[in-house]
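ingest -> fold -> write
write: protein_1
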Amino acid sequence: MIIKAKEILKETFGYDSFRPLQEDAISNVLKKKDSLVIMPTGGGKSLIYQIPALLFDGLTIVVSPLISLMKDQVEQLEQFGVPALFLNSTLTPEQYRENVNRLRSGRVKLLYLAPETLMMDSTRNLLTELKVDCFTIDEAHCISEWGHDFRPEYRQLAKVRKDFSDAVCLALTATATPRVRDDIQQILEMQDSATFVASFDRTNLLLKVADKKNPLEQILDFLYTRGGQSGIIYCFSRRQVDELYADLKANGHSALPYHAGLAEQERSRNQDAFIRDNVRIIVATVAFGMGINKPDVRFVIHHDMPQNIEAYYQQIGRAGRDGLKSDCLLLYSYSDKQKIQYFINQKEGNEKEVAEKHLKALINYLEYDDCRRIPLMEYFGETYGKKECGLCDNCLRQAGDQQDYTVQAQKFLSCVARTEEKFGAYYIADVLRGSSAKKVLENSHDALSTYGIGMEWSKNQWIQLSRLLIRKGAVKKDPKHGSLLLTDHATKILKGEETILGLLDRTQTAATDEARTRTSSDVENKYNEILFEKLRKKRKDMADEQGVPPYVIFPDTTLMEMAFYFPEDDTGLMGIYGVGAAKQKKYGKDFLKIITEFVKENEVESRSKVIRKKAIKTASKQKHEMIGEEYNAGKSIGHLAEKFGVKTVTILSNLKKYLEDGNPLDAAGILASSSLSERKIDEVNETMKKVGPELLKPIYEDLDKSVDYNELRILQLAYLAQNGG
């Protein structure tokens, strides 16, 4: 059945391969074995029950805590051509009856319910008439009083579960410590269930903690470099939400508030505006966000401290669900800590004990001096395998707070001079990036020597550099026209007499853009921004016509691939991430029209042949070949183990097979995964020379059993790679 699951993954959902642990978990569910899945937000939990639902004969019930999540999930599934519906209090009596009739007809594969709706006698009686194959509990941490979001009504699910004795039980959550996991299994009587725990490391999130000094100014500085991006700002109280919302609005930002003090209709309207890209920023209390499935949230800011690490992790998890780089900024002050301590002191007994432990762990994370991912992963029972992640403030600070931007500054200032100081930063960025914008061509600035010399940076990075140059006094803005004017300091920079050192981001998120460029894919760094915006506009128009969020049509990652590969036909389009058969049929023609017109007008060379070849090649490739190629492309052994959901020893075994096929391997990358000293490694190598590298037992014996087999496997592979297999 897993072969059919892979076909559904591609044909229905448009994805080429499963993410780590997805395949194992789906396979277990299809075998009707109870499963507990702990997977970070954005990790692909939903597919673990959605794909089996399409393979089972009967119904899959999904218990979900929020109405907004149900509505969102059903809308997305309908776009994929999957029959799904929900029953809750938002439906009119007529809509409710219609949905019940659809259920009885057997045409529905997935039914979403709130725990309260499920507990109603009428619902339970209805479900006894139907064949239920899978009983799924989403946000399963709500069942445990040790979880950060305990809900008493979730406890009753254990009783209801017994109504479906033939159904497999699947519990899902993004945030569960080992103690909470045990609690979930015990309450749901899932003692014999398999547990699938994915890594808690969200590798695309930049983690930053800053001392809270002037929070409004800090947030305005942060937003200054992120125009047009979607984000959430969390505040401790309703009053703080209202004040910050008013301040942001007064400063020209597209924002709305969200908290429990607003009327339900207004809350729903504001949330909907955010999801549909009608407003960019939501300022909210923790009442907002659970079940929000918007994939293109580019930043999450904590104006105030969260109450614990689980809440923090869940809230930052709303950023970058599409896998693209996103920023998480937390403003930390001693007074916030005192506020939380005050509320803890109002509690008693076990509840107070749990809250004290949560606060202690959070403070440890906030005041940690080394890589922030180490205490964060440790809290969830996971060991982080690196000393530095390269994507948190502490690691970036170790790499050097200030970057040398002299070369880029010279390019920028030279372009200002050659365009006669008549234009602003956005126009200069267009010239540097070789834009074919009408104004650039009309001014004949495509003939300048500076035209197209800045392709290594995105437009946004050049804009940030312009602000750095203003702060450094190299350029100033014409107060009347907004054009950039060169100063005496600029002349010295152009002559090479002075350097430009600094940070592009005034929130002191050290080397954010450098880190993002280093860790992003070619698609993310080099997609055509002009075509991307055209596709985004079309997506928004379509979404508004259908009354759905834009990402339901296609996520940003799909549009980026379209703006990178420029597919020319249906076959090419089917190779794009997130384009399944249903969406290709529904939207392919409209998006292909925009792409082909853009390619023709701008004489762009299409890369659609590349994705067609890639799709064919990937389908026929064996696992050890994929692992070998990814390793040679720069992925570490630890990363590959996580990606493929296997142990390190399995990756080593696959790499050895790849080497035996006659392919080269970089020995240095293999040695990097060894924890032995250089002296000990040399000792092992000498032994291999003496007794031969092929069999591990003679090496183990010759070393007096002083090096374990796990280390020997690493060094054996490195030795074979160095010596041609």
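write: protein_2
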Amino acid sequence: MPVHMAKRESDTVGPYNRMSASQANTYLSCPRLWFYQKVYRFKMPQIPVLFVGRAVEEAICNVLRESPGFIAANAGQYVVGSSPYSDDGQPLSGKDYVWPSMGLMPFLPGERPQSKTELEAWALERCRIHLPPALERMRLEWEKDERKAGDWSEVDPGRCLAMVESGLRFHLEEVERCFESDGGPNKEAWRRGERPSWPAPDGFPHEPFVGGHPLRGEGSVSWTEAWELARPWFVDPSAPKFTMNAIHPEHWFQGEYDLVYRWSGTPMIVDLKASVGANDRSGDYVEQLKMYAMLWYVTHNREETVGGLQIWYLGHPSIKTVPVPSVEEMSVIEEEMKTLWDELKDSTPSLIDCPPEPRAMRGFSPGGLPIEAPSTTRCEGCDWRAVCPGGEGQDGPRLEASVQLPSFNQRTSLQEIGSLNPRATVRGELFSVGYVKDNIPLKMTMKQGGNTAHIQVVSTANADGEPTVAVPAMKGAKVLLKDAIFTINWKGEIVLKMDPFSRLEADEDPDVESFDLFDFQAKHNVGGTVVYTYEKSGVGKNGKAWSRRGLMLMDHTGACKVEGWSDDWNSQYDMLEMGDVVVLANVGLDAWASEVRCDYTRNSRLQIIERVDRSAA
């Protein structure tokens, strides 16, 4: 099976703390780079090419999901609609839910493609229908991204279409091999309507077909049957995001395959790359596939190994074959990844534990072919060079413990970012229950003596999948709200937000320590180095436009986002550049999971203390 889900009863790692191939490769390229992006959560500039790759893969998968035995080449893009999955990615039963392909009528045998040429013509016409909406969806996502960079007008739809066509031609080579092999060893089982536990997405439910597959034939396999038999597994575009992973039986590693071909009886994993392959990352792709080979092996009771590993470079149409590691080599990979998880995930490493020690650059020509390494260093192209000691930055404190701000009568004491804690455990009684959705209260009010606070349920399930509201929400109920996020709204009212790390339960243990509502520190002063600034905007449900601004701030103890409404920032925001040293006074706190954020309001203040050298500007 290409999907191997976590077992909740034995998963002590959780979905937010697993190792992945991308994380491992990032750490191995530079420990400090991994720390900045995974611990401090620095987000690199989001250039259009990152979104183009997703659009190309989406278009390919949408064509693979369809069938020339059901869908005409010039049909609309929504002939096969969304498939029904639960929130955790489990496919829902075809007995209880309508799957999109169940209502399709098969073409007569003579109306289906009779050759590879006809099949290719059908597939290429389908990709011309699916790519434009996929590109538009990605453009809209890019537009909304707070770290968007570059210019979408530079995206060449013709080049994107060429990459999709290349991917489908590579797939058709597999279809042809299946045809020449008379369907492979699973032909008769497929004709009888049998289905693997996780079939390739085709719009039908996962249960077997009663009375045989509707496109089944007799005798030698047809081209349409070869298309159906050769269809690889891939992430169904209908499935909820981040649910189609293969998770290590011990839960500390996970990966998501692009394509898995199984028609020959021996699985082959394919990694799709909408690129030329002529840069250092091509080395990471090879290591990633080796890790995926290990993951397949351990998630199949250490009994089944993959028969092939391939990288499809769609920007320079070519297939790179990666040697499949032996069982002994996979054991070494597994041990190395577990050691890395112990170092990085079992407990969070410190900044000192992740030094700026990048490995040498590797050279590759188009198609991912190794060549002599370039003379450039990894630091030269790093997004965080201006704040990293490997470049022009430093790890030590940039500010004293207190600073004298212009027009302030007294020095302002600063808190270290690493010491900020927005979470509070509060006991009291429910005073009112407001908005309820699916029998779960999302807004409540808690009373503590003469004081009140709003409870806002942002997540109805915690990190373990259990309900965050674990008590009947009734007025007068004595409750204990654990690890809520203590915030202040624009009216100055206390709001206790519940995310996946919070829980509302009955107050049955008087020994649990809790805060008085008005004893919790609501406002803070922080300072440090500006890593980057960002802006985002949109239109609210009420039809009114909104705009927010923010920055990523780092000191010698940690990093956090500081964000507020655009109109609330003072004029100094427009002067900021990466590397400036600033103070932000009178900010509130917010959080999501382990990420701490600061809220900038009209009562906050931004002050530039030290400006980065602008001589090169």
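write: annotation protein_2
The CA atoms of residues 410 and 550 lie 27 Å apart.
The two ends are 54 Å apart (CA to CA).
pipeline exit 0
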